[in-house]
Specification:
The complex is a heterodimer of chains A (203) and B (197).
Chain A lengths: L13 H9 L3 H23 L2 H17 L10 H20 L15 H7 L9 H7 L2 H11 L3 H12 L4 H8 L3 H18 L1 H5 L1
Helix pairs in contact in A: 1-2, 2-3, 2-4, 3-4, 4-8, 4-9, 6-7, 8-10, 9-10
Chain B lengths: L7 H8 L7 H10 L1 H18 L10 H6 L4 E2 L2 H12 L4 H27 L1 H7 L5 H30 L2 H28 L2 E2 L2
Antiparallel strand pairs in B: 1-2
Helix pairs in contact in B: 2-3, 6-9, 7-8, 8-9
Classes of the chains: A mainly alpha (203), B mainly alpha (197).
Amino acid sequence: MPAPPALDLSNLPDADVVALAQKGRDTAFRELIRRYERPVFSLIYRMVRDRELAEDLAQDTFIKVLNHIDRYRPEFKLSSWLFKIANNVAIDHLRRRQLNTISMDGSPHAVTQDAIEATSFDVTVQQESALEEMESKELGGAIEKAIAHLRPEYRSCIMLRHVEGRSYEEIATTLDLPLGTVKTYIHRARHELRKELEHLRDE
Amino acid sequence: MNHRHLLPDEIDLLLDDEVGFGVQPLKAHLEECDDCRTRVEEARFVVDALEDAPHFAPSHKFAEKVLSQVPVFVPWHVTARDMALQWLPQSRPARIAVAALATSAASMMTLMILWIATQSSVIAVATGAAGDQVVRGLLYNAGHGVLATVFGDQVFGMIQQTGSLGIAAAMLGLVAAAGGSIAGLRALAAASSRRRV
């Protein structure tokens, strides 16, 4: 007689899966990772544009959340919590690395050519095989490059809005920003992306 | 006719597929204004590109790497249940058979314990104790002390009425329960641990 099937958690809402995780069920932890590994990794990857680094930061995100799963409150969305931490770890890393997408031409304090080159941001990082693959398709590549040119704050807002399909209110809660600020960031991000992609639109 | 072109915020409303009274005039304006329609289409082009952007997948060992650093505490009752389930057969008839066997075995052991309890004098002679009366006395006093403490004098009185057989059975039951509890708790405490793979 075959063994009974393992508990299928895929149809349970997040709150129920979290409740099982809080009771120590290993399968519940795995289900949470399965549901959100791609969205979390994608958000971080587009923020830091380094696959290996993005995977480390995504792991940190899940480790932080799962180690404190007992603090989860069902009235809030688990996904918002995950995205908040993912955004924070990415932004913290970018600040430490002093990567500034506005300063494509180097730090404003750099005065020599060597200093400018040392502080400029090169979009085409060698490790990004998946992004390179996307960039081989014209539109997909152009949008990824355009996203990379955005300020980190604009980038996270526009990705949560249009890649993850979050409402303005959810984004404001997730990123701890006023609703008006979120709308402003998204508006500006759309404007900058439109300018970047203008040449494709005309073809 | 309203010749004012759409404001950026109004284009955003259309991009966000907002519905409401304020949106209808904007849509009506688009039907008449080529410039605004072009601006909205350009903005929609960007939004569509974003919404078509795929999710990237991490490495296939991502979950394992995460779980290796997350201590999964398994509560004792979950461990107990999982251990029992490991030994239980899967089919219902087999489980019924196991339950029947376990009940029979428990009953047999209980009867054996009770029979041994009635043979205290034999045990006393076999072990070479100095007079079965001394042994009986010792057993009785010890049993009286423990049972009275655990069950209270009233209940002990009821047990006492069943004679030495009842006292012995009650004592053995207490010892078995205490021993089983200690062994079970130790096993579960060892199993209920924070594990790291």
